[in-house]
Design brief:
By secondary structure, the protein is an alpha/beta fold. The strands form 2 sheets. The protein has a 6-stranded mixed beta sheet. Helix 2 links the parallel strand 1 and strand 2. Helix 2 crosses helix 8. The relative contact order is 0.23.
Length: about 260
């Protein structure tokens, strides 16, 4: 379950106190992250390592879905991890599976779904639901992630619009693979979180989906049950939820949530 706003504010404030505390220079963290928050994370990580003295090793996985590379599947088979960063929907599943240290989860940022095309290609009009339906049903191939956003589109949006059997859809395990399909020309377009579009070479934002079929996807961080680096994990989460991180999050096509909750 997501934290109530007042509860998240307390968690962020408590974590923020840890940023000022010294930590052994040899401290190391293992992070597992999905694609949605990876753009801001990659920008922020060097600053965190410099300021904290903590060395971070980063692995990746999808927030939800099936297959061995989901974050849940990797944790289940014992891949060493101290912090996970993924969609709130995926994190809620980890909380239910008792994979997360209670009280450490914090919503970091939110981003909407949008359509992307190959750089230089004409940008279709997706400002209305009818326009969206026309674009996706006429496309040669529509690429989506097999994770949270793709599940939402395939199981909710397309059936609700009555076009589930009219869209030539290809779901891939990761957003990066979706982007590659469009950049190579194999797929005409992709539907992804904005944060997975704006920093990818070869991909261009065509337009944000209408509110009637929109998923404003939150990405959250938490410490993993069994981690031996809880202090470092809390410090990283505090940093990513801080005012200091807000600029990089906004440049990455996301709205900071940790900062807002703490104010």
């Amino acid at each position: 379950m997501a934290l109530r706003p007042w509860s998240q504010a307390r968690v962020v404030a408590a974590f923020a106190l840890l940023l000022a505390l010294p930590l052994a220079a040899s401290a190391q963290l293992k992070v597992m992250i999905s694609g949605g928050f990876s753009g801001p994370y990659e920008q922020l990580l060097p600053e965190f390592e410099r300021s904290s003295g903590i060395q971070v090793t980063t692995g990746s996985g999808s927030s939800q879905g099936t297959g061995p590379q989901t974050i849940a599947a990797q944790l289940a088979r014992g891949v060493p991890t101290d912090v996970v960063i993924l969609s709130r929907e995926g994190l809620n599943e980890l909380v239910a599976a008792r994979r997360i240290v209670a009280g450490t989860d914090v919503d970091l940022a939110r981003t909407p779904l949008a359509m992307a095309v190959r750089t230089g290609s004409p940008k279709p009009d997706v400002r209305t639901v009818e326009a969206f339906k026309q674009v996706v049903t006429q496309a040669r191939l529509v690429a989506v992630p097999g994770s949270t956003s793709g599940i939402f589109l395939a199981k909710d949006v397309f059936p609700r619009l009555g076009i589930a059997d009219k869209v030539r859809l290809k779901a891939t395990p990761r957003g990066a693979e979706v982007a590659a399909l469009v950049a190579s020309g194999e797929a005409d377009l992709a539907i992804l979180p904005v944060s997975e579009i704006v920093h990818v070479p070869g991909l261009e934002l065509a337009g944000v989906l209408p509110e009637e079929i929109q998923l404003h996807q939150a990405f959250a961080a938490a410490a993993v049950e069994g981690s031996t680096q809880l202090e470092g994990a809390r410090r990283l989460i505090a940093f990513l939820a801080s005012e200091q991180a807000a600029g990089a999050i906004q440049r990455g096509g996301m709205t900071p949530l940790g900062r807002r909750a703490a104010n």
